[in-house]
């Protein structure tokens, strides 16, 4: 179905991955309760006093971020994305099986060698997001979404799920149609083989206007991977799955790009992703959570939305 791709083993350097991921998240930040829970899209309150003016300043981004996006924009082709999904669904791929909390603990090992004084662990970031959502009184399903939204980075542990950091983290975008100028560093797409393609290089490409966001093939990464893992293995609502799938799709939820593909029913998904975004980004300056104190609450929350307990990753 897809063109052959280089399947050399991925170097699972947790510290390096988190350095890239944190740098990308840092520049992303700028672009970006009561007994009865608030609506999921109610205005966030936890970040009201935070200074957000120092983030998502791509002009001043470090060379590491610029180099990362140059590679990502060159290699995220239609052929690569077809091949990535073919490998994901392959009957021969042995899928790891573990609980959600075990997955969180496994993800935490990615940064065992990093400096604890300068970087938070994955579990701390996930709990920061979840706790900020909880403090604002948002629904329990949204609290859980905050806890699990980055678990797609587990793909680094599994064979044939990724080829490098460029198809794990970073802003996402659709493939199979023209790369929008509102993507970060749009000029770097010129090195992509699909740039100027007779079909993939056109405005609508393989899609139709109003086809719906579920019809788009998003660039391969931890967002798309986790969405594919969870959509049939949880009772999370459609809005939660959209938060997971599109939380890195800044060209859409922040810059207004690709909205010509939205169906009428997608308005609620856009609101969901926009409501989730502050909790992912601005919570990183919150106090470091006490994992063992919070664990019982979140184990109960996990059981509520993952009745089968063991997930096939």
From TrEMBL:
Write out the pathway annotation from the protein's UniProt entry.
Polyol metabolism; myo-inositol degradation into D-glucuronate; D-glucuronate from myo-inositol: step 1/1
Top-level enzyme category: oxidoreductase
| Recorded catalytic activity of this chain's protein | myo-inositol + O2 = D-glucuronate + H2O + H(+)
Picking any one GO molecular function of the record gives: inositol oxygenase activity
**The keyword Oxidoreductase belongs to this UniProt entry's keyword annotation:** yes
Which residues are recorded as binding substrate? 56, 112-114, 153, 170-171, 247-248
What EC number(s) does the entry state?
A: 1.13.99.1
- Cofactor(s) listed: Fe cation
Q: What's the superkingdom here?
A: Eukaryota
Sorted alphabetically, which keywords does the UniProt record give? Cytoplasm, Iron, Metal-binding, Oxidoreductase
- For this entry, list what GO says about its biological process: inositol catabolic process
Q: Where does Fe cation bind?
A: 125, 149-150, 222, 247, 280
Similarity section: Belongs to the myo-inositol oxygenase family.
What is the protein name given in its UniProt record? Inositol oxygenase
Record the organism. Parathielavia appendiculata
């Amino acid at each position: 179905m897809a063109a052959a791709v280089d399947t050399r083993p991925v170097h699972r350097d947790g510290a390096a991955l988190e350095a890239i991921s944190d740098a990308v998240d840092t520049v992303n930040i700028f672009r970006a309760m009561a007994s009865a829970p608030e609506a999921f899209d109610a205005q966030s309150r936890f970040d009201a006093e935070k200074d957000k003016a120092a983030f998502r300043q791509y002009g001043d981004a470090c060379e590491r971020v610029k180099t990362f996006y140059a590679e990502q924009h060159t290699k995220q082709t239609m052929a690569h994305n077809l091949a990535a999904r073919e490998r994901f669904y392959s009957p021969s791929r042995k899928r790891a099986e573990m609980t959600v909390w075990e997955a969180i603990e496994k993800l935490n090992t990615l940064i065992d060698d990093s400096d604890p004084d300068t970087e938070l662990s994955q579990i701390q970031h996930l709990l920061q997001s979840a706790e900020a959502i909880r403090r604002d009184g948002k629904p329990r399903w949204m609290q859980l979404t905050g806890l699990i939204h980055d678990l797609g980075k587990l793909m680094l542990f599994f064979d044939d799920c990724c080829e490098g950091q460029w198809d794990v983290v970073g802003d996402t975008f659709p493939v199979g149609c023209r790369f929008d100028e509102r993507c970060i560093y749009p000029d770097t797409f010129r090195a992509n083989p699909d740039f100027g393609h007779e079909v993939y290089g056109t405005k609508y490409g393989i899609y139709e206007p109003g086809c719906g966001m579920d019809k788009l093939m998003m660039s391969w990464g931890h967002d798309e991977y986790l969405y594919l893992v969870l959509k049939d293995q949880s009772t999370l609502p459609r809005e939660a799955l959209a938060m997971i799938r599109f939380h890195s799709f800044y060209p859409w939820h922040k810059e207004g790009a690709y909205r010509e593909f939205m169906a009428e029913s997608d308005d609620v998904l856009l609101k969901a992703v926009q409501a989730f975004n502050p909790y992912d980004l601005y919570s990183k300056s919150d106090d470091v959570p006490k994992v063992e104190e919070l664990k019982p609450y979140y184990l109960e929350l996990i059981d509520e939305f993952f009745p089968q307990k063991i997930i096939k990753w």
